[in-house]
Design brief:
It is built from two helices and six strands; from the N terminus they run E-E-E-E-E-H-E-H. By secondary structure, it is an alpha+beta fold.
Length: 91
């Protein structure tokens, strides 16, 4: 897994939509691959980027509402993001 210093996502007009900072990226995912865990700097919530589940996988989820989706992410990347988040003094 790789830890990131800080990458903020903006819309195409250059205005910040979400202040997301990359916390942890899966080892072997390459420079632009995923899965990746971000933290929203304003809310403290995690945002996860990854490969979407196909219709078979999504069908196994309970209460999936329109507009919702699910991604796959390895446990080590999630735990790495949590460790870094806690190390920064956040809870």
């Amino acid at each position: 897994m790789a830890y990131a210093q800080g990458a903020y996502l903006s819309n195409t007009e250059g205005r910040t939509v979400l202040r997301l900072r990359q916390l942890c990226k899966a080892a072997g995912s390459g420079a632009t691959g995923c899965p990746t865990v971000y933290v929203d700097e304003d809310t403290g919530e995690f945002v996860v980027q990854g490969d979407l589940l196909g219709t078979d996988g999504a069908g196994a989820l309970e209460n999936l509402l329109p507009g919702e989706g699910a991604v796959r992410i390895d446990v080590e990347t999630v735990l790495g993001a949590v460790d870094l988040y806690r190390h920064e003094g956040r809870r």
